[in-house]
Design a protein that fits this description.
The chain is of the alpha/beta class and about 450 residues long. The protein is built from 15 helices and 17 strands. Strand 12 and strand 13 form a beta hairpin. It has three domains: about 120 residues, 3-Layer(aba) Sandwich (Rossmann fold); about 160 residues, Response regulator (Rossmann fold, 3-Layer(aba) Sandwich); about 150 residues, Alpha-Beta Plaits.
Length: about 450
């Protein structure tokens, strides 16, 4: 694993010490000896993790962290604050400034490297999501990146998995005003509960009498539904080895008992903010992919999807020696509808036609808006005779009931012409299949409209 780590400290010896440790693990290291230089480096270069000293002149680490996290261009970069201070209030202050972690000098080498590697993995995931989102069109990415998820009103739903009653009661009291907390005292039941409910964080105690908490962490990380669910480990003094192993397995954070309420809530807030941020990025990517293949007016697939998927359906039919049919439909005299009732009226007709079309085809059929008032239906495992009957059913469905358009629901008569073609044995192709359907449609239109032609099938 390689990454670019920025070390920020005003004492050269401290910088050199961390640099040597990181270079030994084959990280690329950048350095800065003050806050403004650190911010400039993050703004101008590709930084994966920032190791930030707190006690610096002019601009301390808290202020640097706050500025980095408030800028959409740098807010996604993980920040680990490193200081000689060992007060809970200092850790809480750092976490509230947006820090992703807080380590105390002298830093344990194994702990430092495990933390850095964990945050590098997180940064890699976030970068991939940001790249996909930022390269898509008009999805409000800048607005998303500038949102402060920590200030959202909705309390996070959190699961605590802990068999000790006294521990559960303490955590419940601490999070009473911060989170909607569910409790599972049995780790196996907790696993299924975490998998079946939309939690934003899960707290797992290490103090089970006959169960390894790290196994539970591993199971949650291996399941698709919980792979990105933040996990915080609640450990006892002296369990450093277990904590380090947990970080290697993918837990996001940990707390050592006795747990301080302010630190717990601050660390929980950090995890929830990060999860909401990445969830929004994933949703934006998914929405954009959907926008790329779905016609916004009718909700059917668009021509782009048809062009890519029809070839797959065609190849599968040929390989399996199964029938495949295609119909192309065209709304009759649609231009006169637009001219008479306006484009809003035309849009109402297209939406209603798509609804009736969807109603009369199977789930395995591919219904698409081909362009304008033309629609295509691809029917796997359907021969020409059956496809013709389906086309006739659709034609009748359109003709038998008037279409309601406009706010007043004015009824107008609409008809459709349909051309049908089917896969031919031998040297057929997608282009030829579509050409035959188009020729059949032309014949239906020129032959008087409101009819089905399948002679070219």
């Amino acid at each position: 694993m390689t990454a670019r780590i920025l070390v920020v400290d005003d004492i050269p010896a401290n910088v050199r010490l961390l640099e040597v440790r990181l270079l030994a693990e084959y990280f690329e290291v950048l350095t800065a000896n003050n806050g403004p230089d650190a911010i400039e480096t993050c703004e101008n270069g590709k930084v994966d993790v920032v190791l930030l000293d707190v006690m610096m002149p002019d601009m301390d680490g808290f202020e640097v962290c706050k500025r980095l996290k408030s800028d959409p261009a740098t807010s996604h970069i993980p920040v680990v604050m490193i200081t000689a201070l060992d007060q809970v209030s200092d850790r809480v202050r750092g976490l509230e400034a947006g820090a992703d972690d807080f380590l105390t000098k002298p830093v344990n080498d194994l702990q430092l490297m495990t933390r850095v590697k964990s945050l590098v993995r997180l940064k890699s995931l976030t970068d991939e999501l940001r790249l996909r989102a930022s390269t898509t069109r008009n999805i409000g990415i800048e607005e998303l990146l500038s949102r402060d998820f920590a200030t959202e009103d909705a309390k996070p739903r959190v699961l605590l998995i802990d068999e000790r009653k006294t521990s559960v009661e303490r955590i419940q009291k601490m999070l009473r005003n911060t989170a909607e907390l569910d409790v599972a005292t049995d780790p196996n039941a907790g696993f299924f509960q975490a998998a079946e409910t939309a939690y934003e964080c899960v707290l797992i105690s290490t103090a089970f009498s006959d169960f390894d908490a790290l196994r539970l962490c591993s199971q949650l990380r291996s399941l698709d539904r919980t792979r990105f669910l933040p996990i915080m480990l609640l450990a006892d003094e002296g369990e450093e080895g277990r904590i380090l192993r947990g970080l290697e397995l993918g837990i996001n954070d940990y707390l050592i008992r006795p747990i301080d309420q302010h630190e717990l809530t601050a660390r929980l807030r950090t995890q929830v903010r990060r999860k909401r941020y990445n969830d929004q990025l994933r949703a934006s990517v998914a929405q954009t992919i959907e926008m790329a293949v779905i016609d916004g007016l009718t909700g059917l697939h668009n021509r782009r999807y048809l062009d890519s998927h029809l070839q797959t359906l065609f190849d599968r039919a040929v390989a399996r020696r199964r029938p495949l049919s295609v119909m192309i439909t065209d709304l009759d005299r649609f231009k006169s509808i637009n001219d008479t009732h306006g484009h809003d009226g035309g849009d109402d007709v297209l939406r209603e036609f798509a609804r009736r079309l969807r109603k009369n085809v199977r789930g395995i059929d591919l219904a698409c808006r081909f362009g304008g008032e033309e629609f295509v239906v691809v029917m796997p495992d359907t021969d020409g005779a059956v496809a013709e009957k389906v086309a006739e059913r659709i034609r009748a469905e359109i003709a038998q009931a008037a279409f309601a358009i406009g706010a007043d629901g004015k009824a107008i008569e609409v008809t459709v012409s349909v051309g049908v073609s089917s896969l031919l044995k031998g040297t057929d192709s997608v282009a030829a299949l579509m050409k035959r359907a188009d020729l059949a449609l032309y014949e239906a239109k020129s032959g008087g409209r409101n009819r089905v032609v399948a002679k070219a099938a």
